[in-house]
Structure formats: structure tokens, C-alpha cells
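Minutes, structural biology subgroup

Action item carried over from last meeting: produce the C-alpha cell record for MTP protein (Circaetus pectoralis). EB confirmed the sequence was re-checked against the source entry. Recorded below for completeness.
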Amino acid sequence: FIQMLRSAKKRDVLQLLRKAPEEMLPFVVETAVAAQSVASLAALSDFLDFSKEPKSLLEKFLYAAAFSPRPSGELLRLVLDKLDGKQLAPEVQETGIVAVGSLVGKLCRQKLCGLQQEVERGVETILAGLRGAKEESEVVIYLLALGNAVLPKTIPTLLDHAEEGPTAITTAAVSALRQFPARHISGKVKRAMRRIFHEKRKNYEKTCRLAAAEILLDNEPSPMDVINIVLAAKELETETATFLLLKVRNSLR
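Output recorded by EB:
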């Protein structure tokens, strides 16, 4: 079916979308996303009306885009165009932002970061949304998107939220930092993770502290980091301490 759509003309894909039985429509939308031909994406652009379509179909489209293994710049542009400047249901907006982060991350892994305007537009969409977010739940969604994008230039932003934000925000920011490969976990990142794990500035939620410890242990830990984490484990609940000691053992191996 995907091969057929890749060789079809826009009008044929559009007709298929318009005439598909209701129970088959999500499948046809997913397949058109997977085809990623110019014609199939143009047909989806004409067909999907984000102000009218049921939320379930729009989310299906966005999930299909987010999980695409090798997305194109055209697919990212389509998602951005559909999100741009529209009053959307919160669930659709959230799924869309997370999808943008996923697409940006995958395009950058294909070495297309500086070569496509869509990637820069996607990054700026996430960062502008983060700057303008007023609700805690909104901030968390944009941080999740940054975690999906895995862009080194966003690490300072993630560190600010990791240390200073309320519980949900700090946890989301530290979780986003965990996505980065070891070469981007600098001394500055490690110092921040130490402050969080050892609660140097304020109290942090257990999940956040564990994530900070994992970053330290998974990225060439120093002997002092290992010693201090083992010593701190004695003050923690049994389950948390056991988890940390297993991580230390795995690091030693």
C-alpha cells in the first residue's frame, strides 16, 4: 500500500482519503505519512483540517509523523504548518509539539540540522513556546519536545529549568538531559546534577534526584561521584538505595 501511494498522484491520494470508510481512515492517513512522497504529503495537507477533524484522527497523524524512522523536511513543514497560529484542542497541541521535537531530532541525526529551514523553524517553535508558556503543564510539554530534539545548544535552557523549576518541570528537564550522548555531558552539566542529587540549593523530588544520579553514573563518573552517591544512598529509602547501588555496580562492570 505504501509503495502504491509513493507512485500515486496527489489527486488520487486525496480521493482515497476522502472516500475511505471512517474505520479505515486512520490507516490511510498513517500510510500516507509513511509514504512521504511529495504527492502524499500535499494530499494530507489539503485533507487534514485541524479546526474540523476529530482529535483522534489528528493525533493519529501526529503520532505517525513522530514515529517516522527517517522523516523528511517536508513532513516537518507539514506538521508545523498545521500547528501554526491555530486554536487547537490541548491534547492535539501537546502531541504536535512533542512530534516536532521528535522530527527535529531525527532530521539532525540525518545531518540535516543546518541544511533545512524547517529544522530551524521547528527549534524556534519549541523555544518560543517554552518562553511563552505560563502553565506548568505547558512548560513540561516543551521540555519533553527539547528532550526529543536532543540539540546541544538547548542544554543551558534545560539546566536552568532543571535547577530552578517546580517539581514537574525539574523532573522533565533532567529527563531531557538524560537523552544526550556522553560527549555533551560537560563539567557544567555534571556540577548541576551533583547539586540536584545532593540537594545543595533546595529539595528535589526523588525521581529527579535519581535521574541526576543516573546522568553522573552513565557518563564517565569520577571516583568521588561514585563514592558520594554510595554514601548518600545510606540516607535514602531501601528501594531507591538498591536501585542506585545496582547502577553503581553496572558502572563498575
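Discussion: Residues 90-109 form the longest helix (20 residues).
Next step: EB to file the record with the rest of the batch.
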